[in-house]
Amino acid sequence: MKESNINKITKFIMMAFVFLFSFSLINMNEKTIETSSVSLVSDKKIEWGIKRGKNHSQPDLGSSNKSIIDKYEGITMGNSEKPYIYLTFDCGYEAGYTEKILETLKQNNVKATFFITGHYLNSASDLVKKMIDEGHIIGNHTADHICMPEVSNEEIKEDIMELHTALYEKFNYEMKYIRPPEGEFSERTVAYTNTLGYKTVMWSFAYEDWNEDKQGREEFGKSKILDNVHNGEVMLLHSTSKDNCNILDYCIKEIKNMGYEFKSLDEFEN
After folding, report:
1. Residue 230 annotated in active site
2. Beta-sheet pairing, 84-91 with 261-263
3. Please, which residues bridge with residue 238 across strands?
4. Which of 234, 231, 226, 228 is nearest to 257 (CA)?
5. Are 233 and 54 spatial neighbours (Cβ–Cβ below 8 Å)?
6. Cβ 246 vs Cβ 211: under 8 Å
7. Burial of 204 by CB count in 10 Å (0-12 exposed, 13-18 middle, 19+ buried)?
């Protein structure tokens, strides 16, 4: 009788072990399914580039590179049939020109998106507040201007959410657009930032406006901007450029005279 009881207990223990082992396998399989879409994609580092079009035609953004952003419902360039311009600025640090840029945008009734870093938020929070108060969009340019393809998902999350949380705590503003620093990304980073609630925004026009040693070329800047206006353009300018500050009003007015309309990213149309 005692031996029979021992056998029953042994059987019960074995069945419980099998059940627990199977349950853990199911959970592990679910976790694999949840993360596989990010962990199994390519981590090849890509540097965003543009081949300019002629006569205000849309540029070539590179079909394979663009397809990665499109796959995750990011923004690169809008509808080719609609004369819409989406104005964006990258703000790594404050150089003393943003106040005038904001005033120019206000006078011309143009809403832009400002992609800020952690340094910018910490050193120019008054300007960030003004951007928000005046109806502009604030985008995430990462807290520390990191190269995302060179760091892990955990490091990406820590960096992005550090800035996300800081801005939310300061101004109760929640960001939803991200621009990879230097335009460097991989499919992994785009897929992963999507899981954090972010839409990746690239651009279809930019020029060497960020170089402090190449300011004082206002006619050059005007020519670059106006000669390359195109339907669906996502225009990237740097708020650190003195030239941009001085020519922005002229360029906005000329672009409108050419028949284009400025839209915010929230109004983006593919």
Report:
1. no
2. parallel
3. 90
4. 226
5. no
6. no
7. buried
Q: Which residue has the tokens 């390519």?
A: 42
User: Within a 10 A sphere around the Cβ of 95, how many other Cβ atoms?
Assistant: 16
Structure tokens that stand for 44 in this block: 């090849």
Q: Tell me the torsion sign for CA atoms 179, 181, 184, 188.
A: negative
Model pTM score: 0.85
**Distance from C-alpha of 198 to C-alpha of 243, rounded to nearest angstrom:** 31
**Mean pLDDT, the chain, integer:** 88
Stretch (H or E) spanning 230: none
Residue of 136, 141, 230, 238 marked catalytic: 238
Find the catalytic residue in 90, 159, 209, 243. Answer: 90
Determine the Cα–Cα distance for residues 57 and 59; give it in Å rounded to an integer. Answer: 6
Helix, strand, coil % in the chain, rounded to nearest 5: 50, 15, 35
Residue 73's identity, in one-letter code, is: E
Question: How many other CB atoms are found less than 10 A from the CB of residue 154?
Answer: 9
Quick one: CATH architecture of 46-267? Alpha-Beta Barrel (3.20)
pLDDT value at residue 213: 83
Q: Give the pLDDT score at 79.
A: 97
DSSP 145: -
Determine the pLDDT at residue 30. 32
The vertex-218 CA angle with 213 and 224, nearest 5°, equals 95
DSSP letter string, 157-224: HHHHHHHHHHHHHHHS----EE--GGGEE-HHHHHHHHHTT-EEB--SB--S-S-GGG-S-HHHHHHH
Q: What is the domain partition of the chain in residue ranges?
A: 46-267
Q: Is 128 helix (H, G, I), strand (E, B) or coil?
A: helix
Dihedral sign, Cα of residue 150, residue 152, residue 158, residue 164: positive
pLDDT, one tens digit per residue, over 18-46 is: 344 444 433 433 333 234 455 578 889 99
Q: pLDDT tens, 204-221?
A: 999 999 888 888 999 999
Catalytic residue at 249? Answer: no
